[in-house]
Amino acid sequence: MRHMTHDNKKAIIIGSGIGGLSMAIILSKLGYDVTVIEKNRQPGGMLRSYVRRGIHCNVGLHYLGALDKGQVLRRLFDYLGITEKLPLTRMGVDGPVDRYYFTNAIDGPRQFDMPVGLDAYEAGLKEVFPKEQRAIDGFMALLRQSAGQLDRLEFLFKNQSPADLIDQTEPLWDVLDRLGCSPGLKGVLSVPSVWIGVPPPLCPQFYHTMTLASYLFSAWRLESNGAHLVNVLLQRLTDLGGRVLCGQAVRRIDVCGGHATGLTLENGEQYDAPLVVGTVHPKVVVDLLGSEDIKPSYRRRITGLVNTDGMFAVNATVPASIHKSLPYNVFSMKTNTEGVAHDVIYTQLRPSGRPESLLLTLITGGHNELWRPWEKTCVGHRGDDYGAAKMKLARGLIKKVEPVMGQLKGLEVIDTYTPLTIRDWVNSPNGSAYGVMRSDRQMLSAALLNRTAVKGLYLAGQSVMVPGILGTILGSLVTAKFIVGQSRFEKEIQF
After folding, report:
1. Which candidate among 118, 122, 169, 434 keeps its CA 20 to 30 Å from the CA of 236?
2. Domain total in the chain
3. Within 13 A of 113's CA, how many CA atoms are on the CB side?
4. How far apart are CA 79 and CA 61, in angstroms?
5. How far apart are CA 408 and CA 245, in angstroms?
6. Is 416 helix (H, G, I), strand (E, B) or coil?
7. CA dist list (Å): 273 to 15, 72, 308, 452
8. 73 in a domain, yes or no?
9. Is residue 82 domain-resident?
């Protein structure tokens, strides 16, 4: 069945994660008739939480930055029309937002607390590293520059793209070396690059400092869960006249004369639209195009992009009668002699929604090599050996965090997931958690991913700019700018 249209204001979006839903709302506000196609039975992608034993476990949403009134993410949420529907709790009121533990403490502190505010962050660095005032001053100058650019959204409203920030794409490690930072100071300063899945030696300075700045502006937790945020976005889209079709996998993107004309689903249904936006991984979008639709060179460029690694996560309960929730996040890690962090474990201990239990979440690198025996399997068909391997790794992580968290009495693991889970859930190649790696080595090949070699076909999602809620929504806005043009964008999109 073909759903035909001659309406130039009709748009189809592939994927319903934060990229797809934000893109859909933006285009709806611009007057487009929007349909979102989602292969899973529920929308939301990695933004959606899932339920185990009556407890919501978040996947891609653990805390948010820059949500105070007037700050950049708050302005974006206000523009999308969702702020008032989100119950939020401010972090860092009486203590840190993040606590770093360096378990081997090579040439540096065993603990560093990251506060709210650029000035407070600078003061904390200078207190812990009193002999490195000049190096800290140099880093803070770069950080404040990025913070200002982010707050002003210069790449949106000054007709420039992140690719234009070439003077700020020097690898973070080269910057820290040039400033004369000790390995201990490097270890502390470089942790935020982990949040976007890029090793510090490869992370362009701007992406790192922009990410850090967003959480120094202010840090927040959603009192509910990722499913709540998804539902708020869905309701907003529905109110604007948009729709989401779930359980519908795309077979191909239809192209005629070098222009996208719509989609064909796996069930044979066809949807016509002159505007198609793929918010899933760029490689997946390219795979939906025929060999005659794009040049081999463009296909090679996209398929050759290096991805971020996957992640392994553990969700467990501990008795609320024994343990107290933590109002901050914990990052425990080791560093090598140069200050490069490894074996990083993110830990969150917070209310579960059930009075008797707290939810403990542990997230670390994907350990992809462990899951190779099950690469050709799918969810629900991986066998007992797979479950045993997951539990063995989970127990190892729990043992590693207990020296900094204390003995976790009464702990019960309720779920684990691996890169294979992410691969199957959101169709991310190799289970990549953060999409295309924004490394210095592929700045040019990853630049301007929003536009494709097919007219009327655009990309959005976490791969087009930088991962995270803020980065992904900004990526959707950049794509919208390409679709409607700079003049209309500046006239109609204001926040």
Report:
1. 434
2. 3
3. 14
4. 20
5. 43
6. strand
7. 16, 32, 32, 16
8. no
9. no
3-state secondary structure (DSSP) of residue 187: helix
Report the distance separating Cα 49 and Cα 56, nearest Å.
Answer: 6
DSSP characters over 439-483: -GGGTTTTTTTTB-SSBTEEE-STTSS-SSHHHHHHHHHHHHHHH
Helices (H) and strands (E) in the chain, counts: 15, 21
Tokens linked to 484: 């409607």
User: Is 429 domain-assigned?
Assistant: no
Same domain, 255 and 378: no
Using DSSP's 3-state secondary structure scheme, residue 160 falls into coil
Closest CA to 361 of 376, 340, 347: 347
**Domain-ending residue, one of 187, 220, 253:** 220
Domain that holds residue 408: 311-365+367-417
- When pLDDT is cut at 50, 70 and 90, the band that residue 159 belongs to is low
User: How big is the chain by its Cα radius of gyration, in Å?
Assistant: 22
Q: Return the CATH number at 275.
A: 3.50.50.60
Contact by Cβ (8 Å): 92, 115? yes
Question: How many CA atoms, within 13 angstroms, populate the side-chain half-sphere of residue 220?
Answer: 23
Q: Are 36 and 244 in contact (CB under 8 A)?
A: yes
CA nearest neighbour of 453 among 252, 255, 250, 225: 255
Give the integer Cα–Cα distance in Å for 103 and 402.
11
Rounded to whole angstroms, the Cα distance separating 432 from 324 reads 33
| Nearest C-alpha neighbor of 207 from the set 433, 432, 459, 443 | 443
Whole-prediction pTM: 0.95
464, 479 Cβ separation under 8 angstroms: yes
CA separation for the pair 144, 408 (Å, rounded): 39
The confidence score (pLDDT) of residue 109 equals 86
Q: Do 129 and 186 fall into the same domain?
A: yes
**pLDDT recorded at residue 462:** 94
Reported as a pLDDT band with limits 50, 70 and 90, residue 8 is confident
- Domain end among 165, 196, 220: 220
Within a domain: residue 356? yes
Q: Does residue 121 share a domain with residue 18?
A: no
Contact 102, 403 (CB under 8 A): no
Q: Pick from 246, 254, 311: which is nearest to 21 by CA?
A: 246
Strand pairing category for 357-365 and 311-319: antiparallel
Residue of 121, 93, 104 lying closest to 189 (CA atoms): 121
Give the whole-angstrom CA distance, residue 435 versus residue 310.
9
Positive or negative, the Cα torsion across 44, 329, 64, 129? negative
The predicted-structure confidence for 95-138, as pLDDT tens digits, reads as follows: 999 999 998 877 778 999 999 999 999 999 999 999 999 999 99
Tell me the per-residue pLDDT of 447-476, one tens digit each, with 9 for 90 and over.
Answer: 779 999 999 999 999 999 889 999 999 999
Question: 10-14 and 33-37 as β-strands: parallel, antiparallel, unpaired?
Answer: parallel
Kind and range of the H or E run holding 220: strand 219-222
